[in-house]
Design a protein that fits this description.
By secondary structure, this protein is α/β, with parallel strands linked by helices. Helix content is about 45%, strand content about 10%. The relative contact order is 0.18.
Length: about 130
């Protein structure tokens, strides 16, 4: 009897573990490091790089190839983003808060490869990477 109960508990545990793995959304978001490789992938249109800061902040300095889509208006850009639903999208802001808000919106709308730029604009600048100004 004890063997049957133990066997049953093992089977239930395995089934529960497998079902949680299949249905749970990842709690940690993928990120991309600041690098020339990022600029190359954006320039080749392999990745979409979105700066979610204000237009004024964007004009003062942004990563080459980035497009400006302020985080509070990210829903206004969904038609433009539709073609990237299953392609890598890298999002950044000044320090991370606004980027995470925009990422959550896109992830909730089933965009599959939404990633965060490690260090955001502050990290990019600190690494001495190229910055475009308008």
């Amino acid at each position: 009897m004890r063997i049957a109960v133990a066997g049953f508990l093992v089977i239930v545990s395995i089934a529960l573990f497998v079902s949680l793995q299949c249905t749970a959304k990842a709690t940690s978001q993928a990120s991309v490091a600041a690098s020339p490789y990022l600029i190359e992938r954006v320039a080749n249109k392999d990745w979409l790089l979105i700066d979610v800061r204000s237009p004024q902040e964007f004009a003062e300095g942004h990563i080459p190839g980035a497009v400006n889509m302020p985080h509070e208006n990210i829903n206004d850009y969904l038609s433009e983003l539709e073609g990237h639903k299953n392609k890598p999208i890298i999002i950044y802001c000044r320090s991370g808060r606004r980027a995470k808000l925009a990422m959550k919106v896109l992830e909730d709308l089933d965009f599959s490869e939404v990633m965060h730029l490690e260090g955001d604009m502050l990290g990019w600048s600190a690494a001495g990477m190229t910055v475009d100004r308008m």
